[in-house]
Amino acid sequence: MDRIVGNRLVRFCCSGCLPKFEKKPDEYLAKLNAAASEQQRAQYPLATCVVSGEKLGGEMGEPVEQVVSGRLLRFCCKPCIAKFEKDPVKFFALLERGNPAKADAGATGAAGAYVCPMHADVVQAKPGRCPKCGMDLVKKK
């Protein structure tokens, strides 16, 4: 038995579980969110905030985590959550692309490296787009 609750699909093993959930939805959703965060944290694809591009766990302190549609998102600060909520499709697309700088760390000096003209810290081995500004990456000279 499936139900859409807010922005997520919640599955129940039987119709008897639905009334239990409906009595304390916030409690059960918090448990689902905690489980999703725990499971996804180690494989989180970005080393930076998906909204601001700030390094996670840097000067801004510990990342702020939120689960949206069953997907973990990590932000540098709470104000970035409000910005995310204004255009979630845009930011989910950035999350899906991952973080080329993290994936190709060490490629900075390699022949064939591509960099963002606006963000020198964004470097990857293949052509693509900058996760911070969306510009095409250019071949490093």
Looking at this protein, list some descriptive labels.
141 residues; alpha+beta; 3-stranded antiparallel sheet; two-stranded antiparallel ribbon; 5 helices; 7 strands; 33% helix; elongated
Distance between the termini: 57 Å
Strand order of the largest sheet: 6-5-7
Described by strand count, sense and barrel closure, the largest sheet is: 3 strands, antiparallel
Average pLDDT taken over every residue: 82
User: What is the structural class?
Assistant: alpha+beta
What pattern of helices and strands is seen along the backbone?
Answer: EEHHEEHHHEEE
Could you estimate the helical fraction of the residues in percent? 25-40%
Rg result? 18 Å
Give the overall form: elongated
Low confidence ranges:
99-110
Strand composition percent: 15-25%
Counting DSSP H or I runs of 4 or more residues, the number of helices is: 5
3D structure, described in words:
This protein is an alpha+beta fold. It has a domain at 99-141. Helices cover 33% and strands 17% of the residues. The chain is built from 5 helices and 7 strands. The strands form 3 sheets. A 3-stranded antiparallel sheet has the order 6-5-7. It has a two-stranded antiparallel ribbon with strand order 1-2. A hairpin with a 7-residue loop joins strand 5 and strand 6. The longest helix has 17 residues, at 25-41. It is elongated, with a radius of gyration of 18 Å. Mean pLDDT is 82; it is low at 99-110.
Task: Itemize the secondary structure elements and their pairings.
Layout lengths: L1 E4 L2 E4 L5 H7 L1 H17 L22 E5 L2 E5 L2 H9 L1 H10 L2 H4 L10 E2 L7 E2 L13 E2 L2
Antiparallel strand pairs: 1-2, 3-4, 5-6, 5-7
